[in-house]
């Protein structure tokens, strides 16, 4: 199958006109706060299918998964994917850390602005998609979960996953396109969840990414975690860079800004002016970068002196190539099959133990994604990591 690198549209948006005006007037818009244990907004109505018993005993993940499967019993078979286990190094891995990266497709965009012309409207309904999304998360039960295009954080994902033992942070986009859709559920943004039984929170921050010191509409959520079983620290980021052809320079600037701020946080916790990133506190950076592997932002992550590598290259025979696709969709402008999503890691301190493979073209089907089988136009990335010994 030939990979098609498709244009995603082009040209400046009114958001950037507004942004430039705000910056030139020396009054950049404030980023909404995201407390470490966010309280539900007063007007939030919790999802009745999942949260009606939230005040009682904690939900059982196996029972919740069964509930999802029962609600989806009339759907086509789910995409079959298997873990590819890797044998690296001489030491046996300790208990692995499972990381999931996923752009789940904002509900308002899926039903409104994204125009998936081959996807039936019924398959895009929230009443169906919420079960598919939670089924995917519950099937793999990651210790660290990084999501983009989240517009049902407070009413669904935060309360449900909190009941399963996850703590989380959410950062909405300053100007979310979801707000232009009638009947929206609020702005979309990035969310980062971690398993409290596995990790202790040391620090957390929301970042409004900048380009040449000008704040943009893209954000990142960052947490500093300590592993309870090894006492090792890890700095985790979830981000979503600017979309569309013509904004390659902006994605590169946003990536540089994110790396700079991660370095600052690591130096703060490393307790040294240099902050040895590669050894003491490794990085895990998950996101929809909206960038193919030939783009400058990708090359910057590979070549900078941070010893970063992309985990999904492990699926290739030579260990040097990304998958053919992480997103596959059909819009009025044509078919788009390309790689935009990544899990970056510090290769000097972390080892990739397993990688979830990609479904085949036949499994995805001729109408591509999203579908009755899968809720998003992006595929989830799931990896098992362990800390390297002797650093």
How would you describe what is shown here?
The chain is an alpha+beta fold and about 400 residues long. It has a single domain (about 80-385), classed as 4-Layer Sandwich (Deoxyribonuclease I, Chain A), CATH 3.60.10.10. Helices cover about 25% and strands about 25% of the residues. It is built from nine helices and 15 strands. A seven-stranded mixed sheet has the order 1-14-15-2-3-5-4, covered by helices on one side. Strands 6-7-8-9-13-10 form a six-stranded mixed sheet. The protein has a two-stranded antiparallel sheet with strand order 11-12. Strand 11 and strand 12 (about 335-340) form a beta hairpin. The N and C termini lie far apart (about 40 Å). About 45% of the residues are buried. One of its GO terms (biological process) is nucleobase-containing compound metabolic process. One of its GO terms (molecular function) is metal ion binding. One of its GO terms (cellular component) is cytoplasm.
């Amino acid at each position: 199958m030939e990979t098609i690198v498709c244009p995603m549209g082009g040209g400046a948006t009114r958001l950037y006109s507004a942004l430039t005006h705000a910056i030139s007037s020396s009054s950049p818009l404030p980023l909404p706060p995201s407390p470490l244990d966010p309280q539900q907004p007063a007007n939030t109505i919790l999802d009745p299918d999942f949260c009606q018993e939230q005040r009682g005993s904690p939900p059982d993940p196996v029972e919740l998964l069964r509930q999802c499967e029962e609600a989806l019993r009339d759907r086509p078979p789910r995409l079959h994917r298997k873990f590819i286990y890797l044998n690296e190094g001489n030491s046996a891995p300790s208990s692995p850390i499972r990381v999931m990266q996923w752009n789940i497709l904002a509900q308002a965009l899926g039903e409104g602005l994204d125009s998936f012309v081959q996807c039936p409207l019924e398959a895009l309904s929230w009443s169906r998609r919420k079960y598919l999304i939670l089924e995917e998360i519950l099937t793999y039960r990651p210790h660290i979960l990084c999501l983009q295009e989240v517009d049902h954080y407070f009413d669904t994902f935060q309360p449900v996953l909190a009941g399963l033992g996850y703590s989380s942070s959410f950062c909405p986009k300053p100007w979310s396109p979801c707000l232009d859709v009638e009947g929206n559920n609020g702005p979309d943004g990035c969310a980062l969840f971690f398993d409290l039984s596995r990790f202790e929170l040391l620090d957390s921050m929301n970042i409004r990414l900048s380009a040449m010191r000008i704040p943009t509409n893209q954000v990142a959520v960052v947490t500093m975690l300590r592993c309870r079983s090894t006492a090792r620290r890890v700095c985790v980021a979830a981000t979503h860079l600017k979309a569309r052809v013509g904004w390659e320079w902006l994605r590169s600037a946003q990536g540089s800004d994110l790396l700079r701020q991660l370095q600052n946080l690591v130096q703060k916790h490393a307790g040294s002016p240099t902050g040895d990133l590669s050894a003491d506190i490794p990085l895990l950076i998950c996101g929809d970068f909206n960038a193919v592997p030939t783009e400058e932002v990708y090359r910057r992550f590979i070549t900078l002196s941070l010893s970063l590598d992309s985990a999904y290259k492990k699926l290739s025979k030579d260990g040097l190539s990304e998958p053919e696709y992480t997103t596959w969709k059909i819009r009025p402008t044509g078919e788009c099959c390309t790689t935009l999503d990544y899990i970056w890691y510090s290769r000097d301190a972390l080892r990739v133990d397993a990688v979830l493979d990609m479904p085949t073209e036949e499994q995805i089907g001729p109408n591509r994604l999203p579908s009755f089988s899968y809720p998003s136009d992006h595929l989830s990335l799931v990896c098992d990591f362990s800390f390297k010994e002797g650093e």
